[in-house]
Amino acid sequence: MDQSGKNSRRHFLKVAATGIAGASLLKPTDVEAKKSKKEEVIYRTLGRTGVKLPIVSMGAMRGDTKALVEAGIKKGIVHFDTAYVYQKGKNEEMLGEIFKNHDRSKFFIATKVVPDDMDRKTGLLGEEATAEKFLEKFEVSLERLQMKQVDLLYVHAVSAKETVLHPEMIKAIKTAKEQGKTRFVGLSTHKNEPEVIRAAIESGVYDVVLTAYNFKQDHREELNAAIAEGAASGIGFVAMKTMAGGFLDEEQTKAVNTKAALKWALQNENICTAIPGFTAFEHLDESYSVMEKLKLTKQEERDLEFARDYAGLYCNQCDVCAGQCKKNLPIPEIMRSYMYTYGYRDMDKGKNLLADMGVVNDPCSTCDSCTVSCVKNFAVADKIKKVSRLVDVPDEFIS
Amino acid sequence: MKNMIMCVGFMLMVFPIYAQDYPAQFKSIEGYEIKGEKQFFNKENLYDYINGASDFYLGYDFKDLWVVDYVNSEEQSATLELYRHGNDMFAYGIYTEERPQGVDGKKIGAEGFVESGAVFFLADDYYVKVYNGSPALSEDELLKFAKKVAHEICTECDLPEQFSWFPEEGKVASSERYMAENFMGVTGFNGVGTVVYKVQDEKVRLFAYKGNDEKCRQIMERYFKRMKYKKKLKAKKYAFDDPYLGKLIIHYSEGGICGILDAKDPVNYEGLLIKLIAEMQ
Lengths: 399, 281
Known about the structure:
The complex is a heterodimer of chains A (399) and B (281).
Chain A: H1 9-22, E1 43-45, E2 52-54, E3 58-59, H2 66-75, E4 79-81, H3 90-99, E5 108-113, H4 131-145, E6 150-155, H5 161-164, H6 167-178, E7 182-189, H7 193-203, E8 208-212, H8 220-232, E9 236-240, H9 258-266, E10 271-274, H10 281-288, H11 298-313, H12 331-343, H13 347-356, H14 380-388
Parallel strand pairs in A: 3-4, 4-5, 5-6, 6-7, 7-8, 8-9, 9-10
Antiparallel strand pairs in A: 1-2
Helix pairs in contact in A: 2-10, 3-4, 4-6, 7-8, 12-13, 12-14
Chain B: H1 2-19, E1 32-42, H2 46-50, H3 54-59, E2 62-72, E3 77-85, H4 88-98, E4 111-115, E5 118-123, E6 126-132, H5 139-153, E7 177-179, E8 192-199, E9 202-210, H6 213-227, E10 236-242, E11 246-253, E12 256-261, H7 270-280
Antiparallel strand pairs in B: 1-2, 2-3, 3-6, 4-5, 5-6, 7-8, 8-9, 9-12, 10-11, 11-12
C-alpha cells in the first residue's frame, strides 16, 4: 500500500483542484475593443470586405420575430443573418417582408445555402453537390428575401477541408459574386472550425467565416489561433453560438450569463460582430448594452468560469461515443465517474464505478492518439487519465 | 452498500443502451423492411444532421431523431425521419413552423401535408418526415407508408385541444401556430396558440394562453412594464399601441390571456375575441 502521500486523498484533491483550475477560462485575447467616449456603438471592420459593422448583430432565427427585427432596426442593428433552411424558407420570407419597406442600402443581409449531397457524418460532398444546384437554391433565397442582391452568401454548415475547397462550391460562390447577386462570399462552420478556417485561408476565395465561438469550447485556443491566422489573411469573422446553448443543464434550470457570454466572444478583436438570436425584447436590450462596457466584470468572469466547469464536468450520457475507443473502454461510465469525483466530490462513488467497469490506472498510456470523439468536445483522454488514478488510491483515504 | 452502488451503476450503465433502442413499433412496418444502418441523433448532435435548423427544433423541446431507410418487396425505398419532442404541443409547434400556410392538409396521423414529393405529418409527440428513395415509391404508396407509420404511433391522433377554442369563422386554413417561447417578445410568455383570420381583406391574429394565474399575472406585469403602464392588473381587456407590435388588444382573466394582433384597428375584431374568451372559460 502506498502511503507516501503521492496517492493520498490530499494529493489527489490537490491535483484534481489543479486540473479544474487549469481548465479555467482562457480569454481569446485580453484586449478591450476601442470605443470613442462620444459613441454608444462599437464598430469593427469585417476583414477585407472593408464593411464596418456594429459588434452586435442579429440572427433572425424565428419567423415570429418580425417585431423583434423591427426593434433591432430601431436599436441600430445593421447586420441580419438568415438561411435557406430556416423554417423551410419562412425566415427568409419574413425578412423579405420587412426589408422591402426599408432603405436596403443601410443594412447588411446575409443568407446561407447548404450544398446538396453532403455526408452528415464526414461533412464531405458527393456527386450531387453541384454549383448549379447550389445556385438554384440561392435563387430561391433571393426570391424569398425579395432582393436582387444579398451582402453576404455563405456556404452553410461546412465541417471538412475538402468541402471548403470543393471545386463546385468555389465555382458556385464565384459565379454568384460575378453575377452581382452577392457582394461577398463566405462559409459557416460549427464543427472542426480550425481546419475549416485554415482551408478558407488556403482557398483565397472566402471573404468571411461565420464560426461557432463561445467560452465553453474546449478547443478555443486552437480556434483563436486559426481565427488570428484568418484575420491576418484578410478574412472577416462573425461569431455565432456565443450563448453556448443558453442553459447549463438539460432541464434548463441553470441559465448561462448570456450577457457575459456575448462579451467574452467580443473580447477577441478579430471577431467583427456576433449574431445572437433574440426571442424577447429584453434579450435585445441586454445584448446591445454590452457595448456600454465591453470588459467583463469580475462577477461575469466568475459566472463564465462556473458555467465552463459545469459543462466540462457533466457528461450527458448520450452514448454516441460508445464503441469508439480502440481499447473498448467504457467511456460514458468513466465520464460519469469523472462527474462523481470532480463534480459531486464523491470519490467513493467514482472509484466504485471505475472498479465495477474494470478500469485500471491510466489505461490510455499505450495509445498514441485518441479515437473517441465527444459530441460535447470533452477532452476524453485527458479526463480518463485524471480520474483513473483514483483506482490506485486506497479506500481508507477515500471513505 | 457496495452492492447497491454496483446495482445503480449497472442500471445507469444499461439505461442509455435502452434509451437508444429503435422504438419497437417501427421495426416492422407491413410490407417494408429496414435497410442499412439506423441513424440516431439527440440534442447534442442534431446539428450534424440538420445543421442550423437544429436551433428551431431545440426550441420545441426536441428529444431525439431516428433516420431509417425502408424498402419494399420491389426494392422501392423511403427514408423515415422520426423527430420526437417533449409533448404533443411541442411537436405541433415545430410541425407548424414548417407547414406552409394554406396548404392542403391531409389526414395522416393528426394532420399532414405533401411538399416536393415528401410527406410531413404530426402524430402525438412525433413530427415525422417521409422522403422518397431511389427507386421511388409512387406518391400514393408513399402516403400509404406514411399512414402505416402514423398508425404505429396513435390510432386516434388528434390536434392539440388548445386550438379548439378559436372561432371557425374567418379562420385561415392551416394557420395555427404554437409559440413555444417569449411570445410578443415577453420573457416567459411560453406556449401560446395563435391563429390567423382573414376578414375583409385584412389578416389579423388571435392568440390564446392558459396557465396558472400567478404565471399569467407575471406575464401581464412584464408586458405592462415594457409598455410603462402602471395601473393595477384587473380581469379585463387592455388596448395598447405597442411601438413594435402596433395596435393590439390583450385580455386577462384568471388563468388565461388572449388577444388580437396585427390589426389596423383591433376594436373591429372584438367579436372574434369575445367568442375566443367564451370558449376558453
